[in-house]
Design goal:
This protein is α/β, with parallel strands linked by helices. It has 10 helices and 8 strands. The structure holds adenosine-5'-triphosphate (ATP) and magnesium ion (MG).
Length: 249
């Protein structure tokens, strides 16, 4: 069985950072191999993981649509080869980047192959971590299986939390099959006010925990150093791991 965890939340709240910490945690707990999926068209989970990516699933789909299939190869074989090339392997986890969304025109054939490929691929991993862009369209479009845990990341701002509430409601309505969703409040300087906490609770969002604002987390990112290499005794990493201990089976 594959356990899938998806990240969502307003832009810049720390979805990719938390995804990186989660991958670090799962590797540490030997919950491997993990499939990391970057479903943000402005992909940067690879940087957080310290990996270089050249191929994306979107590129493979684009090439198949254009019909650039080498002679002597069927479309299916070519597409599957291109899709396989988009999976980057590392120790304990693999990463696949979805890439750019579809342009105009018909992608039906390519998408059928893509869906089949993803279904087979995801079956190989006990854990999937999916980073997303702000908004939920991608989760509904791209996941073939259900989401076991949706981690909604917000900062302490009212607007961030309102977005989190909206995303939670949307997830219910989109019929994605989210088994459980949690709110993670990230980049915390001052504890959120009671008014804010009440607003969250009243709207049925369960808070999994908070992660402090941390200078190292910021500096690593600024200097292009992979977030997953931040030492485990860092306060933000520690806080994230404590949250995962509670919510990841
Ligand atoms: N706990 C934290 N302490 C300090 N800086 C943080 C923390 N969490 C995230 N950041 C910083 O905030 C910025 C945005 O983080 P990140 O890219 O993870 O957000 P995102 O939600 O994935 O953004 P986007 O919506 O653009 O994909 C980065 O510079 C990151 O280093
Ligand atoms: Mg991101």
């Amino acid at each position: 069985m594959t356990f899938s965890i998806a990240l969502a939340g307003k832009g810049g709240t720390g979805k990719t950072t938390v995804a990186g910490m989660l991958i670090k945690y799962l590797v540490k707990m030997d919950k491997t191999p993990i499939l990391a999926v970057d479903a943000d068209s402005n992909a940067n989970l690879n940087e957080v993981c310290g990996l270089e990516v050249t191929d994306t699933l979107g590129n493979a789909r684009e090439e198949m649509k254009k019909g650039v299939v080498p002679s002597g190869m069927t479309k299916d074989i070519f597409m599957n080869m291109k899709l396989q090339q988009a999976v980057v392997e590392d120790e304990g986890f693999d990463l696949v980047v979805m890439g750019q969304p579809e342009g105009p025109g018909c992608y039906c054939a390519a998408n059928t192959l893509l869906t089949g490929f993803l279904e087979k691929l995801t079956g190989n991993y006990p854990y999937i971590v999916m980073d997303n862009e702000a908004g939920m369209e991608h989760i509904s479009r791209l996941t073939t299986s259900n989401v076991d845990v949706l981690l909604i990341v917000s900062d302490t701002s009212r607007r961030g939390l309102q977005a989190a509430i909206r995303i939670n409601d949307l997830a219910k309505n989109l019929n994605i099959g989210v088994s459980k969703s949690y709110l993670i409040i990230n980049q915390v300087k001052d504890a959120p006010s009671d008014a804010v906490l009440n607003m969250v609770k009243k709207n049925g969002l369960e808070i999994a925990g908070t992660i402090p604002e941390d200078n190292d987390v910021y500096e690593y990112d600024l200097n292009g150093r992979p977030t997953i290499e931040i030492p485990e005794d860092n306060q933000a990493v520690k806080a994230a791991f404590e949250i995962f201990d509670k919510i990841i089976p």
